[in-house]
Amino acid sequence: MYHFNFTPVFDNFYLLLYGAWLTVRLSFVAMILGLVVSVLGAVARTSRYKILRGLVGAYVEIIRNTPFLIQIFFLFFGLPAVGIALNPNVAALVALVINVGAYGTEITRAGIESVPHGQVEAGRALGLEPVQIFRYVVLKPALRNVYPAMTSQFIYLMLTSSVVSTISANDLASAGADLNAKTFASFEIYLVITAMYLVLSLLFSGLFRLVQHTLFNYPASR
Amino acid sequence: MIRQFGPADILFIIEAVRWTLLLSVIAFVGGAVGGLIVALARSSDSIALRRISAVFIRIFQGTPLLMQLFLFYFGLAVLNLPINPLLAAAVALTFHASAYLGEIWRGSIQAVPTGQLEAATALSLSYRDRMQSVILPQAARIGVAPTVGFLVQLIKGTSLTSIIGFTELTRAGQIVNNATFDPFVVFGLVAVIYFLICWPLSLYARRLEARMRRAFTR
């Protein structure tokens, strides 16, 4: 009979809490930067320049059809061979941004394409500048339309970020791995950490609902 | 001893593809069975079944696949079973896929117009007949595109089983890299192989989706 021993986990719980904070910070920064990449990517993907569309299309397809683990290995182990050495935490952030940027580009593009063209013409008729039209008439309704898809992608990003522990970047999963190496209470540690990730994903989805209520709290146009 | 990356290494990596494919097939088939149960429970009349299946989905969609793999891997020791990466990986991925497919198929079942269910009930068909002959065939058509999309996610997910020591494509790449120390070429090759497996599926999923959209806007 297996004897559960949660003492090492709760004696060192502060280490795991700190790891959770690092995961929150890493994911949050990756979400913000990923959103920027997504918007830029979607603009390029819908631009009139064929080369630009093709390049961004290739980026999206390559990232979406290869595992994140390979992407981060390539970045962390492969790039030093061509003279670009990143420390684990930077490599982790870059890999996450590149990854979520590809999915976000597709999501944002779908959002932009869902905005009726008449709306853009109405903006032009009102004498808005192109930048204003993009910002208020296209982007905001576009992001509103794809908000659920985007935020579930962000939560998926937070879960995926556990993989950065494989290149020993600092996060919740690597805090767990460190504790495991010290105490060998493997199952107990991973049970607690898995529960912590569940709490984090619930917290993030609560936060996203709150943001939705403040940013998009106006009636739908149709 | 570091040696040159050669044809034998390429062969070793390519041969490991079968383990990635085998694991994907096991998880997909297991996940299809589990997913159907979850989807039916999720759209059933019983509140208890709906709640339990919702919690199941929440847990497996709200936690990292990597942690799920660790839990099943170390869980074998808890159950006094011998440590076996393939078994742990297959079981973990099956549960993982059951949750995702269950949620996808719940959506497909609920996307079937309610009139269909009402008509089937009015004809006094049994639950089994209602599902088997009326709802599920229509739901299957709706669900096939996102299912293929999830299959891509599942195949990519099998790469994480390398971390619990199962020698599939990613682990084979790591082994070769440890011997040749040519990560740029090795992981580049591994990435290309994953891409060649996943990209056709992604394109197929997108084509199905477009066809579906046309069918529904008609």
Automatic annotation (TrEMBL), chain A:
InterPro entries per the UniProt record, alphabetical: AA_ABC_transptr_permease_3TM, ArtM/GltK/GlnP/TcyL/YhdX-like, MetI-like, MetI-like_sf
Gene Ontology terms, MF aspect: transmembrane transporter activity
Cellular component terms (Gene Ontology): ATP-binding cassette (ABC) transporter complex
Highest taxon listed in the record's lineage: Bacteria
PROSITE patterns hit by this protein: ABC_TM1 (PS50928)
CDD domains named in the record: TM_PBP2
Location relative to the cell: Cell inner membrane; Cell membrane
Transmembrane segments: 20-44, 65-86, 154-177, 189-211
Domain ABC transmembrane type-1, chain residue ranges per copy: 20-208
Keywords (A to Z) from UniProt: Cell membrane, Membrane, Transmembrane, Transmembrane helix, Transport
Any GO BP: amino acid transport
Membrane topology label: Multi-pass membrane protein
Annotated family: Belongs to the binding-protein-dependent transport system permease family. HisMQ subfamily.
Official protein name in the record: ABC transporter permease
Automatic annotation (TrEMBL), chain B:
Any one biological process term the GO annotation gives: amino acid transport
Record-given protein name: Amino acid ABC transporter permease
Assigned keywords, A-Z: Cell membrane, Membrane, Transmembrane, Transmembrane helix, Transport
Domain of life: Bacteria
Parts forming coiled coils: none
Cellular component annotations (GO), alphabetically ordered: ATP-binding cassette (ABC) transporter complex
Matches recorded under PROSITE patterns: ABC_TM1
Transmembrane regions listed in the UniProt entry: 20-41, 53-76, 184-205
Family label: Belongs to the binding-protein-dependent transport system permease family. HisMQ subfamily.
Claim: Transmembrane is one of the keywords in the record: yes
A Pfam family: BPD_transp_1
Every ABC transmembrane type-1 domain range: 17-205
Localization per Swiss-Prot or TrEMBL: Cell inner membrane; Cell membrane
Molecular function (Gene Ontology), one example: transmembrane transporter activity
Database matches in InterPro entries: AA_ABC_transptr_permease_3TM, ArtM/GltK/GlnP/TcyL/YhdX-like, MetI-like, MetI-like_sf
Membrane topology, as annotated: Multi-pass membrane protein
